[in-house]
Amino acid sequence: MNQLHINEVFGTISIKEGLLPVKVTPFYERKIKEEVQALGNHLGPLHRVSFPTRDRISLRAPNEVKDFVDDRSNACGPANKISAVRKYADRVLFLTTSKCFGNCQYCFRTDVLRENAAIDGRSELDANLRHLLEYLRSQPEVTEVILSGGDPLILPASRLEAIIEGIRSVPSVKSIRIHTRAIVYEPKAFTAEKIDLFAKHNLRITFHIVHPYEICDEVSEKIAELRQRKLRLYNQFPLLRSTNDHQLVLYRLLEMLDDRGVRNLSIFIPDPINFSAAFRVRLSRVWHISDHLNLISPSWINSTRFVFDSSRGKVRREHYTETNSGTDVAIFVRDGKSISFPDFPEYLDVPGKVEFMLWKEKWP
Questions:
Q1: What's the CA gap between 43 and 243, in Å, rounded?
Q2: How far is residue 282's CA from residue 343's CA, in Å, rounded to a whole number?
Q3: Closest Cα to residue 157, out of 178, 142, 143?
Q4: Mean residue pLDDT across the chain
Q5: Among 224, 268, 291, 348, which lies 20 to 30 A Cα-Cα from 199?
Q6: SS3 at position 77
């Protein structure tokens, strides 16, 4: 099955199963073409991020679900719409749009994005913002709002200004954070007007950079421009099989982020959702990678957290208690509450080849 056929098959499956269609920016696709030319195949990490693979289509694991994190259970937006989510007492996640610059194959919010896209009109967006502001005024314990999506940077500056200034009008909100992959998909989306807006309101910016080869000269220059404006920059990303599931890949990425003044917050274990098996990693191997990263790197590299998300918030390794040997479901206890996490089967967890993931390096 060649790549063209894989894309066609995936196109049919995506319509039937409600998955996001293939979407990649010309900027990012240029990097993929360089990768394919160098490797002579479509097995490289950046290609896997953006285009379907044979295992993305055919590989299945037990206990996969449509929506593991279950944002619906924590939704605080208008009825029948997931526009705002509150998992923690002091912060709210606001889904500003269902659109992204590129559709990541590993996306964990596919279900919500497809659902919201069907009703994403300007009147809906205005209503969502009004509802958010009313909610924030009634909940003074909420001190932070996280702008997510989709990708907020895809919105025009005027729309972002209305959202940000609206939130700033609520005295109890002290911090606004914006999450985006625009830095690697479309760095030019950080226009002078948007950067001025972010600097004026002292936003924190969290990138989702998943691989060191996503950081090219243009990306580095844009990060430097943001730092010149005194903006605080962070990163978080998922651990993805055959994309970055090796301590050397993680070390290289975290080192490059640190060199550019970007602090990494978390490395996420992928959700056990439908059509995610191509990217998942068994928990025991996650801990193995984490331990090896600690051994080979200084504290400013290995201080990042390995976590998975749940309807009750982020869960860490120290919350683990046991694994049911019959069902292969791991049990974690957080704040006195039990959280079940279907583990990825060991027989399916074939590690990525580091020589493919770091194809620019010289290997013996």
A1: 9
A2: 6
A3: 178
A4: 93
A5: 268
A6: coil
- Whether the Cβ atoms of residue 341 and residue 315 lie closer than 8 Å to each other: yes
Q: Which residue has the tokens 């998942």?
A: 280
Kindly state whether residue 143 falls inside one of the protein's structural domains.
yes
Domain count for the chain, please give it.
1
Asked if 135 contacts 84 with a C-beta cutoff of 8 angstroms, the reply is: yes
CA dist 156 and 146 (Å) reads 18
Beta bridge partners of 156: none
pLDDT, position 89: 93
Inside any domain, residue 24: yes
Report residue 132 as tokens.
């958010």
Closest CA to 26 of 98, 101, 97: 101
Tokens of 153: 């940077």
Residues 142-174 pLDDT 10s: 999 999 989 999 999 999 999 999 999 999 999
- Is residue 23 in some structural domain? yes
Phi/psi of residue 361, each to 5°?
-85, 160
**Closest listed residue to residue 246, CA positions, set 98, 356, 108, 100:** 356
> What single DSSP character describes residue 118?
T
Spatial distance between the Cα atoms of 147 and 145, rounded to a whole number of angstroms: 6
Q: Are residues 159 and 100 in contact, defined by beta-carbon separation less than 8 angstroms?
A: no
- 298 inside domain: yes
- Is 79 exposed, middle or buried, given 0-12, 13-18 or 19+ CB atoms closer than 10 A? exposed
Question: Could you give the count of Cα atoms lying within 13 Å of 100 in the half-sphere of its Cβ?
Answer: 27
Tokens of 256: 């490059």
Mean pLDDT within 49-71 = 91
Structural domain containing residue 144:
3-357
CATH value at residue 142: 3.20.20.70
Contacts (Cβ under 8 Å, ≥6 apart) of 40: none
Q: Helices 283-296 and 247-259 sit at what angle, rounded to 10 degrees?
A: 50
CA nearest to 115, candidates 91, 80, 162, 73: 80
- Identify each DSSP E strand in 39-83 by its residue range: none
* 3-state secondary structure (DSSP) of residue 31: helix
